[in-house]
User: What shape does this take?
Amino acid sequence: MEFLNKTLAPFGVLVWDTIESELSDALSKRLTLRSAVDFNDTYSFDTDAISTGTLKKVSSKGNVSICTREPIKMVEIKQNFTVSKEVIEDIKRGKVDFDNTPFTSVANSFAKIENDIILTGMANANIEGMISKETHTINASSPKDIMVGVAKAMGIFNTNFIDGPFVLVISSTTMAKLMVESFDGKSLKSKIEEIIGKGSIIISNDIGDDKALVISQRSGDFEFYSGLDVSVGYETETKDGVELFLIQSCAFRVITPEAVVLINIK
Assistant: This one.
């Protein structure tokens, strides 16, 4: 993709390979919410919007009505970051313990944008997130209440004819509390896994320590549309380093809002 400008960078393929590897590793640990929804990568960077089949009536006179088709806009996200010439030179020399802070830092901030879109949407792009005023909410005042909330969520899903399997999305701090506190001789984490299945807990710090989500994984309820998945490109050379950028295009759609239950942790 020419717009990534990789051939214009003052370094070659080996440096690019290292940069991409570092970013891929960091992003894979942060872009965890996409694993809880349907990931649709059949679109391209040229895609401007996603058809929804939704019509909005703009006028009606006699037996003539005029409607607009209401798509979901693709969002193009771009974030620039700087890598010092010292780090570039270290990579060129094959130094394995080079300072990877520029890559982990931008991965954290860039992943938060995608995760926030999935969680709370982006109003300017007509994107709704999983958490909204309509989301069924359960309150929890203790780690034990989170376990109870997960059990209650199963009943709510059953009432709304929402099948499993299910996952629980929590922060690392909440996870630590579930691991150290116990109930009936087992950690709360183990008790929750007895309810929704072993390995069904997803860590995402972008959800915060005051929330947890129980999400159906039956498919067809939440869809993340990827035009261009996260890619790295070259912007310019500065006095002290090189300016690179991360870029992606994406959209998100909530199809069945009943397929998620929010647990508010107080």
User: Anything to note?
Assistant: The first strand starts at residue 38 and ends at 40. Helices lie at 13-30, 85-92, 101-120, 143-159, 172-180, 188-196. The CA atoms of residues 121 and 148 lie 28 Å apart. The chain has two domains: 2-52+66-128+222-254, 136-221+258-265.
